[in-house]
Amino acid sequence: MHMADAPLTHTTVLLGEAVDALLSGHAGADGAYVDATFGRGGHSRLVLSRLSAAGRLVAFDKDMDAIAEASTVQDARFAIRHEGFSNLAALAPGSMDGVLMDLGVSSPQIDNPVRGFSFRFDGPLDMRMDTTRGQSVAEWLATAEVDQITEVIRDYGEERFAFQIAKALVARRQERGPISSTAELAQLVADTVKTREPGKDPATRTFQAFRIFINAELEELEQALEASLQVLRPGGRLVVISFHSLEDRIVKQFIAKHSKEVVDRRVPFAAPVAMRLNALGRVKPSAEEVQANPRSRSAIMRVAERTEVPA
């Protein structure tokens, strides 16, 4: 089969572990659950296969390809919403027994050149999860200033050559017009970053930074985590799979913050704000999974349970 004709497939990372953790709360197979990132439906299909007739599942996704995939799920217990998971707050308070967030970009998105996520395939420099709205990376780079580009690459890519890359991007725009393809961006970064991490393309961090920025991924994650506290019933599970340190740090700090009583020292006689989450630990992929699917290597799953809400 010619590569161009091959179907774009996706292997769901920590599939069994995530669904086990999600359904191990008090409601089990009869509960109501959220797959906050439907993707290609790996988690959703396994959840549905394990729910009883009374169970239900609502999924969110911004990506039009994911919405098309979700429309093939013919199941009365399932509903899909074409919006980002920061809109979890639209669900009724205390209505859900579990929320699952898989923060990885699905392989078909990365591997489809038209989407512009990957430096391995030439395509338009887009990177929007939802191509029906918002600004592409190419449109943003057409006007962004050096300091703004530097900040994005440094903060979201943790790239130490952020300033040099930003300067090269603006110089290139002034000389020959803005960059518009993934191959051009990858080449410019490779020409600018002289020291490479072994086994890693020099453009990896810059591509990650632009994707996170253009989709406001970290802000959306923070909003979704806060919303999960509202929609989860006591005893309900929060399961989050992240793929890089920036996301994992947000998830870890969020769970830690809500896993202890908070006393407001400015109001000495006020009752402390009760603990809202009980941290249940973290899971990494097995050696077998990493060998079978190298993209799972950096995954970390964190699990927490919603505590009883005081009367």
How would you describe what is shown here?
The protein is α/β, with parallel strands linked by helices. It has two domains: 3-107 and 217-306, Vaccinia Virus protein VP39 (Rossmann fold, 3-Layer(aba) Sandwich); 133-214, Putative methyltransferase TM0872, insert domain (DNA polymerase, domain 1). 38% of the residues lie in helices and 14% in strands. It contains twelve helices and seven strands. It has helices at 15-23, 42-50, 64-70, 107-111, 137-141, 146-157, 162-176, 182-192, 204-214, 217-231, 245-257, 287-292; strands spanning 32-35, 56-60, 78-81, 96-102, 232-242, 277-283, 300-306. A seven-stranded mixed β-sheet has the order 3-2-1-4-5-7-6, with helices on both faces. Helix 2 (42-50) links the parallel strand 1 (32-35) and strand 2. The chain is globular and about 60 Å long. Residues 1-8 have low confidence and may be disordered.
